[in-house]
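Worked example 2:
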Amino acid sequence: MSEYDILTTALTDQSHILFLEGLDDQEFWHYATELASAPPTTKVEIEQYLECELEKKSCILPLAALCEVVPPPHQITLLPSIPAWMLGITAWHGETIAAVDLNAYLTQGQARPRSDATLLVIQQDEITLGLFVASVRSIPTLEMEQMHPEQSIAQYPHLSVGAVVGTHTNALVLDTGIILSDMVQRIGEAAAHG
């Protein structure tokens, strides 16, 4: 049985939470990298999520959209004429990607570079962006019965319709396709007006 098969088995087991809690930092990052590079399966796309801690809130992203979790340090290059929530650009596997402070994007605040931030490389619909968050943890399943559709979404009127699917234990459940498309559109608009 390969390491991937062992990890897949762990994902389907109810003891997955205990499994994650038992990992040290290095094992967790290795595990996250393995999941991110594994071929997508229906079960991972439907049931696996990543909870991201922001400054005052947390959000939930589908693990299937995650390419890589990159621990600090990070090299960011500043650019003129970018949205306030964008940190700049960074290199990822020979590709230049936009680096966005996810908390600043959600609150429409000013991006604040943090030396201890974690970079999530997210890819969906041929869009690849880097999202900076305070920390991450995996959650094995997201029970739709436990999700509250559109609660607290009124706090985010600047987001595109459907960007926030709902909330789960006070964490925003985000639609990465809509979020990434909106970010790319706003970055393009800022560059055009700069």
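Residues 176-193 form the longest helix (18 residues). The radius of gyration is 17 Å.
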